[in-house]
């Protein structure tokens, strides 16, 4: 993994002047939250985090590693961080199982607007073919992003490398549009 120290230092330089200012709008906690989110987003992008980790600026902590897909409406939602947090809590506390696969026609097994790593693993454990998994992924109308760590986790759990490699090609044009939209990337995490 190649670290981009220039971006991290730049983020620090951009945020450092705010530390001594007493006349900034909002209270100290709000200022610190905004600064932390900005640094987290810049550092995340520099370190190669997924677009979800980068967009949320660390608001989900390690939990962002569960997210691999999100419905495109999520990016413009006022409650996007809260929704993502809830999806992560669901994945952590009540992971999808092979039995859940029968109750859904898409890869979003619990219909919460996100696809998480446990849902892909559940489809593999249910014995779905690569084609069936990809059909369900495409049926979500979500955009996908996957980190090398998520890729390794999914492959170690038995999800085929072919499925893992195809995830980011689903709705690729929409994904690229969202990543280039300043109103999405420039918006601070809640």
Short synopsis of the structure:
This protein is mainly alpha-helical. The protein folds into two domains: 1-48; 50-185, no CATH class.
Features:
190 residues, single chain, 6% strand, mainly alpha, disordered C terminus
- Rg computed from alpha carbons, rounded to a whole number of angstroms: 18 Å
Characterize the biggest β-sheet.
3 strands, antiparallel
Q: Quick one: how many beta strands?
A: 3
The pLDDT mean sits at 72
Supply the number of structural domains. Answer: 2
Number of alpha- plus pi-helical segments: 11
The percentage of residues in β strands lies in: 5-15%
- What class, by secondary structure content? mainly alpha
> Order of helices and strands, N to C?
HHHEHHEHHEHHHH
Shape: globular
Strand order of the largest sheet: 2-1-3
Helix content: 40-55%
Distance between the termini: 29 Å
Secondary-structure map with pairings?
Blueprint: H1 5-15, H2 28-47, H3 51-56, E1 67-71, H4 80-93, H5 98-101, E2 114-116, H6 117-125, H7 130-139, E3 142-144, H8 148-156, H9 161-166, H10 172-180, H11 182-185
Helix pairs in contact: 1-2
Please give a structural write-up.
The protein folds into 2 domains: 1-48; 50-185, no CATH class. It has helices at residues 5-15, 28-47, 51-56, 80-93, 98-101, 117-125, 130-139, 148-156, 161-166, 172-180, 182-185, and strands at 67-71, 114-116, 142-144. Residues 1-19, 23-49, 55-64 and 185-190 have low confidence and may be disordered. Helix 1 packs antiparallel against helix 2. The two termini are 29 Å apart. It is built from 11 helices and 3 strands. The longest helix is centred in the first third of the chain and has 20 residues, at 28-47. The protein is 54% helix and 6% strand. With 190 residues, it is mainly alpha-helical. Strands 2-1-3 form a 3-stranded antiparallel beta sheet.
């Amino acid at each position: 993994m190649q670290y981009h120290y220039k971006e991290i230092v730049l983020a620090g330089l951009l945020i450092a002047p705010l530390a001594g200012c007493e006349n900034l709008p909002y209270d100290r906690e709000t200022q610190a939250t905004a600064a932390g989110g900005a640094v987290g987003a810049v550092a995340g992008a520099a370190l190669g985090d997924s677009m979800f980790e980068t967009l949320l600026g660390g608001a989900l902590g390690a939990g962002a590693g569960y997210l691999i897909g999100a419905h495109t409406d999520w990016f413009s939602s006022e409650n996007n961080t809260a929704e993502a947090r809830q999806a992560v809590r669901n994945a952590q506390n009540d992971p999808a199982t092979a039995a859940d696969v029968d109750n859904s026609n898409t890869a979003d097994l619990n219909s919460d607007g996100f696809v998480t790593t446990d849902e892909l693993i559940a489809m593999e454990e249910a014995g779905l073919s690569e084609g069936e998994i990809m059909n369900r992924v495409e049926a979500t109308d979500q955009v996908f992003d996957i980190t090398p760590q998520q890729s390794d986790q999914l492959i170690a759990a038995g999800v085929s490398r072919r499925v893992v490699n195809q995830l980011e090609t689903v709705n690729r044009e929409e994904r690229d549009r969202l990543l280039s939209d300043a109103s999405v990337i420039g918006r601070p995490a809640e």
